[in-house]
Amino acid sequence: MAFLALGINHKTASVDVRERVAFTPEQLVEALQQLCRLTDSREAAILSTCNRSELYIEQDHLSADVVLRWLADYHHLSLDELRASAYVHEDDAAVRHMMRVASGLDSLVLGEPQILGQMKSCYAVAREAGTIGPLLGRLFQATFNAAKQVRTDTAIGENPVSVAFAAVSLAKQIFSDLQRSQALLIGAGETITLVARHLHELGVKRIVVANRTLERASILAEQFGAHAVLLSDIPAELVRSDIVISSTASQLPILGKGAVESALKLRKHKPIFMVDIAVPRDIEPEVGELDDVYLYSVDDLHEVVAENLKSRQGAAQAAEEMVSVGAEDFMIRLRELAAVDVLKAYRQQSERLRDEELQKAQRMLANGSSAEDVLVQLARGLTNKLLHAPSVQLKKLSAEGRLDALAMAQELFALGEGSSDSFSDKKPQ
After folding, report:
1. Which of 123, 350, 397, 423 could pair with 402 in a Cys bridge, judged by C-beta atoms 3.0 to 4.6 Å apart?
2. pLDDT category, 422, cuts 50, 70, 90?
3. Per residue in 33-43, pLDDT tens?
4. What's the Rg (C-alpha) of the chain?
């Protein structure tokens, strides 16, 4: 049993690197199966979000370098380039890292709630791919429980601080009266849903949701009295929009410099505020070169995020302690489970010996032996048989000078330090 958590995130890699290491939803099942097949991993899961791509693995023997090579090959990256941005956590540290991630303690926005849902999706996809087994399965459940406790028992998630909230906060700084602005939201996932909710709460009355499928856009739009359109309608809506916030899973940019430039001319160069939360990016970086466009990427949100995090810093310490306790408890339970097979085999062996001696006792009674003689023989015979194999092994270990094993046997059999049966001070005969 060995756990491995390996990946990159917003702290270790630029948007450009994160874009190239990201997995699309369509890739995940095939990637998971390939990962297990080519790296000798018995169980695996992949978490891929705007700010991180992480692999969670269970192997007989840790081989982080093999996994890194697979990740580099899969995304056609230089191994040296990937290694410069990657981090690796093993066993106890891997367990603690997963719990910190699920609790929002490792997020760009401290305590943001979306990551727990993304972690649950990661687990569901791995189950679908058939790459989740009993050990990672237990680890994910322990991770979810730890994150739930952090949410319930600390104030880390009380204030509406998220990437979505940070984007809306920036818009509020630029436009004095958001109620008169039109917002164009591109995408219909969780992040855009949060953006729409924050804008709606701030009184923005004109919200347009553009998505690849009109049905998905309509479902979101109905919640906030917004208008749903297709991605092909974006150029027309862009002319009327003061705020553009985009977060899709598209592998190619949705908004190019030319389209924005045309919209600005029709707007008579009235400013447009844009936030590209997507990885890979939805808006070409060159758009930021245009006059009258304020373009921010996820990395640009750090300053806003830092300001909004002050209220959560106090709760973070308590959350970290909960995660540490949760990780330690999980590893203790897991180590206890490792003894189950041994205990099961030992019990089966003991029950077989008991049945053999019981059959002898029953035959003695049938042949007329007294009950007292039968009981004495049963007790003596069962004791001798139960002690035979351990006695042979202990003598062998003693002859080999394995005093550490003898001391362990003393602890295993709960022999007191002052007992005459103590092995600790005896030397091999």
Report:
1. 397
2. very low
3. 999 999 989 99
4. 31
- Strand positions, DSSP E, 237-381: 243-246, 272-276, 293-297
pLDDT, position 315? 85
CATH architecture of 2-157: 2-Layer Sandwich (3.30)
Q: Which of these is catalytic: 17, 28, 50, 57?
A: 50
Return the CATH number of 163-303, one of 3.30.420.10, 1.10.510.10, 3.90.550.10, 3.40.50.720: 3.40.50.720
Residues in the chain: 429
Pairing of strands 2-9, 87-90: antiparallel
**Residue 427 has what pLDDT?**
43
Report the phi/psi class of residue 413: left, alpha or beta, with left for phi > 0 and alpha for psi in -120 to 50: alpha
Domain layout of the chain by residue ranges: 2-157, 163-303, 340-412
Higher pLDDT, 392 or 309: 392
User: pTM for this one?
Assistant: 0.62
**421 φ, ψ (degrees, to nearest 5):** -90, 5
122 in active site: no
